[in-house]
Specification:
Layout: E1 8-12, H1 14-24, E2 31-35, H2 41-44, H3 48-57, H4 61-71, E3 85-90, H5 94-109, E4 115-119, E5 122-126
Parallel strand pairs: 1-2, 2-3
Antiparallel strand pairs: 3-5, 4-5
Amino acid sequence: MSFTRNVFLYGQSRGGMMVFQAIRDGFPARAAGTIGAFTDLGEITSSESGAATAKMIWPDFDQRKNEIISRRSAIRWPERLSIPLLLMHGSADSLLTKGLLKTRSFVAQGNYRIDPRSAQGGYKTRDPSH
């Protein structure tokens, strides 16, 4: 017997970005949660250290930069994140916190409900409306 109705996704950091891609590509999850997931790879790779890391992961980053960034930046396709999401970020990570604020902004433009919750040392955003 298969319990496919109870499939959920979870990812941290780059794994969170992979969760977003799986949702975008139609993985049949009911909900997902991420910790420290980035939503804008372009912003991360705009720094010298971020670009250097990207080149280590994708040796052809310079040639395929736009494709790589677009495919891995949920901020470019928020309408495809169609299941409930729990997005957790610590406030000590200024780059990811800035990304989460951008994520909240684009999600708020759609038909999504944002419910920010504050916690010591960070905050959580959840969307129980789907």
